[in-house]
Amino acid sequence: MVMVCDACGWEYKVEEGDSDNGVAPGTAWEDIPDDWECPVCGLEKDGFSEE
Fold first, then answer.
1. What percent of the chain has pLDDT over 90?
2. Which residues contact 31 (CB under 8 A, 6 or more apart)?
3. In a 3-state reduction of DSSP, which class is residue 48?
């Protein structure tokens, strides 16, 4: 599954995670904290859509 930021197009890929911001590779989207934000533009987690 890939989740895409609605504002800037950055993609969250489960296999890659977001280790720069504390999300380990393999972390499912639903397991990411609700206060996590897009590392590029700062959009909140609920501003992402499934690709």
1. 98
2. none
3. strand
